[in-house]
Each structure stands twice: as structure tokens, then as C-alpha cells.
Design goal:
This protein is α+β, with helices and mostly antiparallel strands and 173 residues long. The chain is built from five helices and ten strands. The radius of gyration is 26 Å and the shape is elongated.
Length: 173
């Protein structure tokens, strides 16, 4: 996922198609929460002009993260759509734009950009939804169960059930 500026300039009037698997396993050293990384499938295209290279990418793969409740390994799917622009010249006015990176030397490297995008996708908490997984947190027990927010909103507190018809009685009188 590295190109020199001269290699990119060959695609100035054509689209550069991208379809590669990228190994970003070194991300585990930057973020200790990541237990494993599948090879990331990067697809997309690049639009190249004399001054810029704009990459329209889709990144997909999986991260293995610990469950926030039980520390069981959880496969967390990654699906990122992004547009990254690299400035190929030395004009400082364009350096202030948001979302524009500068090519380091004569090379455009997408691996650091992909790594940063993956780090931004890591959630604060991830939960193991598979009840049958070894070491997973149980979803029910004696006199308790995990209730979703929708179920909780639909359920009426039995202590207040009679108040639901309070205003109906006023209208009948």
C-alpha cells in the first residue's frame, strides 16, 4: 500500500483500482486492548491529479477484543468507508485543509492511515453476545435476567398499573 509519487502520476488520467489484503498486526503493540487482527481487506480506487491523490477506500476485517464483562475474546467486525487525500506538492496553503495529508518524501503510504482508522473504530465497551461461548457471562439466573431497553420500556411497573386507567375514570364521570 505504498506508492511513489512518480508511480501515482502514471495513473493521472486513469483510475487506480485497489483490492488488497493488508497485515496490520503491529496495531496490537499500539493498543493493548486488541488481542488479534485479521488481515484487512482494502478495496477502492484512487483519483490522481498533478497536486493530489484522493483514495476512496472500503476497509473490512475483524478485530479480536476482550469482553467488557468477562474478558472472553469477541470478534468485532470492521467496515469502514473513507476518503483520504494526500497532497503531493509543497504548497503550504493546502496543508491547513482538514483531511489532507502530505506525502512523506516521495512516498504515499496508506498503512499508517489504515492503522489510525482502525484505532478510532475500537468501541469503549464490547460485549460477548454468544451465551454458549466458554466463559461468557450468563444472561439469566435465579430471580434475575438481562433485560433489553425495549423490553424495559414496554413493561409497566405493577405498582403503577392501576394508575394507567386513572384519567379514563375521570372521563366516565
Amino acid at each position: 500500500m505504498k506508492w511513489t509519487i512518480s508511480q501515482l502520476q502514471k495513473f493521472r488520467d486513469k483510475n487506480l483500482q485497489i483490492d488488497e489484503f493488508v497485515d496490520v498486526s503491529d496495531i496490537k503493540e499500539r493498543e493493548k486492548q486488541i488481542l488479534g487482527v485479521s488481515p484487512m481487506h482494502v478495496t477502492g480506487k484512487a483519483d490522481v491529479t498533478s497536486a493530489r491523490a484522493t483514495f476512496h477506500l472500503h476497509i473490512s476485517g475483524e478485530l479480536i477484543l476482550p469482553c467488557s464483562r468477562t474478558l472472553v475474546d469477541v470478534n468485532f467486525p470492521i467496515n469502514i468507508d473513507t476518503t483520504e487525500t494526500f497532497f503531493l506538492g509543497a504548497d503550504s496553503a493546502l496543508l491547513e485543509e482538514d483531511g489532507v495529508a502530505v506525502a512523506k518524501g516521495e512516498v504515499v503510504d496508506l498503512i499508517p492511515v489504515i492503522t489510525e482508522l482502525l484505532l478510532l473504530e475500537i468501541p469503549m465497551q464490547v460485549f460477548c453476545e454468544d451465551v454458549n461461548a466458554e466463559g461468557a457471562a450468563p444472561h439469566s439466573g435465579k430471580d434475575w435476567s438481562v433485560v433489553s431497553e425495549e423490553e424495559l420500556q414496554q413493561k409497566v411497573d405493577p405498582r403503577l398499573a392501576k394508575l394507567a386507567n386513572f384519567f379514563d375514570n375521570d372521563k366516565e364521570s
